[in-house]
């Protein structure tokens, strides 16, 4: 099992959020900000948390904030920017729009590290989830080269790494929902109030 001091938490909060129309990290569910759910899920498992965002409003959380090294290049650039600043061999990457995320899901990623895999990602409802994943620091070089060649697709980058997939049990699928639209937000709020 990897030790906590060898893991950095990287929260991606730099998305354009065009479908939501607002910065998703500052949306609320049950009075708690989305970004706070991400911080709470990562905190027990990592030595440091950084937020990848160009938005200075995130400084209120007192965590290291990292700006995108390459602007407007999507999650691939966000993960690269976090890895570039990371001082640890392993990095738990989590998108800020997954408010129901549970610590036990992230623990499964850490427990699955065999020293061999560059990326360990969750598979939920048959979908690969590279924004709930454990990345080795050495992915940084590959990602940088792709970004330099104008490649923006995260899946293309991941396909160049040694990947291990962790299929979640169906009872945990709900906790990996990412919220992209006002309708999805409304649905999750209604479900949590029932």
Name its key features:
globular; seven-stranded mixed β-sheet; single chain; 9 strands; two-stranded antiparallel sheet; alpha/beta; 194 residues; 6 helices
Explained architecture:
The structure is a single chain. This protein is an alpha/beta fold and 194 residues long. The protein is 29% helix and 23% strand. The chain is built from 6 helices and 9 strands. It has a 7-stranded mixed sheet, with helices on both faces. A two-stranded antiparallel ribbon has the order 2-3. The longest helix is centred in the middle third of the chain and has 12 residues, at 74-85. It is globular and about 45 Å long. The mean pLDDT is 93.
What's the tally of helices?
A: 6
Largest sheet: spatial strand order: 5-4-1-6-8-7-9
**Envelope shape:** globular
Order of helices and strands: EEEHEEHEHEEHHEH
Cα Rg: 16 Å
Q: SS-based structural class?
A: alpha/beta
Indicate the mean pLDDT.
93
Number of strands: 9
Q: Which consecutive residue ranges, at least 5 long each, have pLDDT under 50?
A: none
**Which percent range fits the helix content?**
25-40%
Separation of termini? Answer: 37 Å
Strand content is: 15-25%
Sheet having the most strands? 7 strands, mixed
């Amino acid at each position: 099992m990897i030790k906590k001091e060898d893991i950095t938490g990287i929260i991606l909060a730099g998305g354009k959020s065009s479908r939501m129309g607002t910065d998703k990290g500052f949306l609320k569910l049950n009075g708690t900000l989305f970004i706070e759910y991400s911080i709470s899920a990562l905190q027990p498992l990592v030595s440091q948390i950084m937020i990848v965002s160009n938005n200075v409003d995130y400084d209120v959380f007192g965590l290291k904030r990292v700006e995108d090294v390459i602007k407007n290049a999507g999650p691939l650039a966000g993960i690269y920017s976090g890895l570039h600043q990371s001082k640890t061999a392993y990095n738990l990457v989590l998108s800020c729009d997954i408010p129901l995320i549970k610590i036990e899901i992230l623990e499964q990623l850490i427990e699955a590290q065999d020293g061999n895999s560059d990326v360990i990602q969750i598979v939920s409802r048959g979908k690969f989830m590279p924004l709930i994943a454990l990345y080795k620091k050495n992915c940084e070089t590959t990602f940088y080269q792709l970004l330099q060649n104008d490649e923006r697709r995260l899946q293309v980058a991941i396909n160049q790494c040694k990947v291990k997939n962790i299929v979640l049990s169906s009872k945990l699928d709900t906790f990996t929902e990412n919220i992209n639209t006002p309708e999805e937000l409304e649905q999750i709020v209604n479900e949590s109030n029932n």
